[in-house]
Design a protein that fits this description.
Blueprint: H1 2-39, E1 45-51, E2 53-76, E3 81-86, E4 93-94, E5 99-103, H2 106-134, H3 140-166, E6 168-170, E7 175-177, E8 187-188, E9 193-210, E10 222-226, E11 234-246, E12 252-259, E13 271-288, E14 299-306, E15 312-325, E16 328-333, E17 340-344, E18 354-357
Parallel strand pairs: 1-18
Antiparallel strand pairs: 1-17, 2-9, 2-13, 3-5, 3-8, 4-7, 5-6, 7-9, 9-12, 10-11, 10-13, 11-12, 13-16, 14-15, 15-16, 15-18
Helix pairs in contact: 2-3
Length: 375
């Protein structure tokens, strides 16, 4: 019995010693891991940099506009009739008064011949009534009836001439026709479209500006319009009309500019980016667009500053951005000219992290007016 108790006690002591040994080993490992974590320094993050620079920009207010034809109409028939002749093709340029469509007027011409005969008869009757009235052989009422019949015959003939004239449909002004919408033999009804006609040179550019910009607007002020359809092409024009009324819903003012449109490159309905140019220039601080991190809570930029032991660190600063031109954005507050900013790789950073600069793999240099090759 005593021997069994000694055996169990020895086993317990052995187990305790094993547990203590394992705990010592694990404790040493955990301590080593903690020390390693405390002493761990993350490797520097590679970025490319650029210098915030000062530039002189032309003062301008930007807006979104649309091209509008100076003159535009849908050419349509005024009277019913069958299409007898078509004198144009889709897209033709026409002069004012050019014949576009001729409708059948055979019935009206026959009616006009009858009306002319009636005019001749009524004139003869009136002449005879005047002679008889002069001789006192007829009553004044008979003369009045003869005069009324002549006037009625003349009016009937004039109405038929007008109807025949409307059977020949002409261009109301010089311009370019749209797609033809009639065919030979088609029966046209009054108001039915034949084709659109638009004068495209010059062309209007309509856009809206906020009411706070009214003070800087004036008739004759220069504007510049750009279209995605013609990259790197600026269409210059001048403000022609400023609407005297401010829209109560949007608090915007409608402005119309006249723009020369040589070659008719701008077409009605085109979307345009409009810049209202002012004569003065202003000094701005600019950085590449890629340097700005845009976020709902505020836009920010990482500045490159000296850290400990000759290292470089990134410090996040919030900025207020302004106008954008080409690859650059204006910084109204937060960055001064001459400071170095992270231009690419900013999305990988946190405030205060160590960085390394590698501008050898940076993207092409930013430009205010880039002209990339279209491939």
């Amino acid at each position: 019995m005593k021997k069994n108790i000694l055996t169990v006690g020895a086993s317990l002591v052995a187990v305790v010693l094993v547990v203590v040994a394992i705990g010592a080993v694990k404790g040493g490992q955990i301590s080593a891991m903690i020390e390693a974590g405390e002493s761990f320094v993350p490797p520097p993050i590679g970025v490319s940099t650029a210098e915030a620079s000062s530039d002189s920009w032309e003062s301008a207010t930007t807006a979104v506009g649309s091209a509008v034809a100076v003159q535009a109409v849908t050419v349509a028939a005024e009277v019913p009739g069958s299409v007898r002749s078509i004198r144009f093709e889709s897209g033709d340029e026409v002069a004012r008064g050019d014949v576009l469509v001729v409708l059948d007027a055979s019935i009206e011409r026959a009616q006009l011949a009858s009306a002319r005969a009636q005019v001749t008869l009524s004139e003869a009757t009136l002449e005879r009534s005047e002679r008889l009235r002069g001789a006192g052989a007829t009553a004044q009422a008979d003369l009045d009836v003869a005069r009324a019949q002549r006037a009625q015959a003349v009016a009937s003939a004039s109405g038929l001439r007008a109807t025949i004239g409307k059977k020949t449909i002409r261009a109301p002004f010089a311009g370019r026709l749209g797609i033809r919408e009639v065919e030979l033999g088609q029966i046209l009804q009054p108001g039915e479209a034949i084709a659109t006609l638009q004068r495209l040179d010059p062309i209007f550019v309509d856009f809206n500006v906020p009411e706070r910009s009214i003070a800087g607007l004036s008739e004759g002020q220069r504007i510049r319009a750009e279209s995605d359809g013609f990259p790197n092409v600026a269409f210059e024009g001048a403000i022609e009309t400023i609407d005297p009324r401010v829209d109560e819903r949007t608090r915007n003012v409608r402005v119309r500019a006249r723009v020369p449109n040589e070659g008719e490159r701008l077409r009605p309905g085109m979307f345009l980016d409009v810049s209202i140019v002012r004569p003065e220039r202003r000094n701005v601080v600019i950085v590449p667009n890629t340097a700005v991190l845009y976020a709902p809570y505020g836009d920010s930029i990482y500045l490159v500053e000296d850290g400990e032991s000759g290292t470089l660190v990134a410090r996040q600063v919030f900025v207020r951005t302004g106008e954008r031109r080409g690859d650059f954005v204006e910084i109204e507050d937060g960055v001064d000219a001459g400071q170095t900013v992270v231009s690419t790789g900013a999305f990988k950073l946190q405030n205060g992290v160590t960085i390394t600069v590698d501008n050898g793999t940076a993207p092409p240099a930013a430009e205010v007016a880039p002209t990339p090759e279209n491939r």
